[in-house]
Amino acid sequence: MKKFFFLLCGFLLSVSAFSEIIISEKFNYSIDFPEGYVITDMESDETTVIFKNKYLQAHALIRVWPNSQFKSSDEALKNTLSRIKATSDYSQAIWRRQKCAVATFESPLLFPDNTQAAGWAACIPLPQQKGFLSILSYAPKAVSDDLGQVLVSVLDSVLIDAGSFREPGLITTTFYPRQSAKSIQLTVNGKTIVTQIDSIDKEASQALIDREFAVFTFYASHNLPEMFDAWVRFYRLIARDSMERVKKVSFDVYTSLRDDCEAADAQNPEAALAQTLLYWAQDFNYERKSSTYDKADIESIPAILEGGSSDCDGRSLLLMCILKNCSIDSCMFISAQYSHALLGVYLPDKMGQTIKVDDGEGGKEYLVGETTAKKLTLGMMSANMMDRQNWIPVELP
In the 8-state DSSP scheme, what is residue 273? Predict the structure, then answer.
């Protein structure tokens, strides 16, 4: 992952090239912030960091407590909130196989003028005994309801290890815990594949889409400079949320098609798999989910798998997630100018139209995949959409 370094208060905090992902190398956590959050204060030992959104009255505070100071995340969060004389309502969740704490709160001590603050808080045990990460996401109480989606989005975007880049976030997991397996049936390349998702996946994924679209809409409606970064983040968070939800689907698809793909292309069965899945997606029922500006025009990945209609971006995201679960380097490309989305697959031995993605080491050429026009192979691209400057990559770190 490409990183840039900013000097603040005498020490370094790294900021990823993936938009607003803030990374603490000392404590090994990251936060995929909505656009516009900037650091306003920070302790020299990096245990406390304060953020403010330059466009919204939204704030965030991070406090890392030593692992020896508390016995649990619940105890650490209660202590954190007691220090700001907060009234709160707690709940608990298991996330990343750790017991975490979540709360809504109000406090009179977070703003210098004693303005009442309200928002959300969470505490997560960090891996390798790095400590307890407490994070508060808040706003003046008078506007906290209006900014509720943004405040929740911050907490749901905390990342504590590589695996958390590819599963639902803490808040989504808290309110939409896994329930029971739901059998679904797919027909790919003439084969019937019986597989499973969770019965909560469709509802949970749609809730995330609705929330993050509301966050993105603020940047789009105000035509802010970060509008396109916010658009990329919207899709990135959907992909992150979907990866775990389609993990078993990906495995079952791979095992069912593996022999056929090896027979079709013994030298590069990964390319055969990508092409097979592209043909599969091209046959989906095409339909735009919404024609109004107040709702996201994308179907959730679980809904598509259950037989729902889909558009170019939903299909591209679905294939990206399945291929990445199969360890095939893939991404998605979006274009405002063309109102379209494409799949991208890294297949350096295959010829065709590609779009280059900067990886900090010279870049990679991703073969494009058109998901809505039938019978088009990987590497084929509409002649009126070939200006590479009009395509923006959506990647998962």
Answer: H
Exposed / middle / buried, residue 145 (Cβ in 10 Å: 0-12, 13-18, 19+): exposed
Both structure tokens of 136: 């508060």
Amino acid of residue 151: L
- Tokens 């928002």 appear where? 119
d(Cα 217, Cα 293) in Å, to the nearest integer?
9
From the CA atom positions of the chain, what is the Rg in Å?
22
Give me the long-range contacts of 383-390 (CB less than 8 A, separation at least 24).
Answer: 384/338, 385/335, 385/338, 385/340, 386/353, 387/337, 388/355, 388/356, 390/335, 390/336, 390/337, 390/338
* Alpha-helical runs (H) found in the chain: 73-83, 141-144, 148-156, 170-175, 201-221, 227-245, 247-264, 269-282, 301-305, 312-325
Query: What is the token pair recorded at 190?
Result: 């003439």
Among the listed residues 313, 335, 196, 310, the one whose alpha carbon sits nearest the alpha carbon of residue 252 = 196
**What residues contact residue 93 under an 8 Å CB cut-off, 6+ apart?**
99, 100, 102, 170, 173, 174, 177
- Least Cα distance to 88 among 96, 72, 77, 99 occurs for 77
pLDDT digits (tens, 9 = 90+) for 13-55: 444 444 568 999 999 999 999 999 999 999 999 999 999 999 9
| pLDDT, tens digit (0-9, with 9 covering 90-100), for 274-305 | 999 999 999 998 776 655 556 788 999 999 99
For the residues 78-89, what does the mean pLDDT come to?
A: 97
CA 302/CA 311 separation, integer angstroms: 14
SS3 of 40, please?
strand
Tell me the whole-structure pTM to 2 decimals.
0.93
Which pLDDT score, from 0 to 100, does residue 288 have? 66
What interhelical angle do 247-264 and 227-245 show, nearest 10? 90
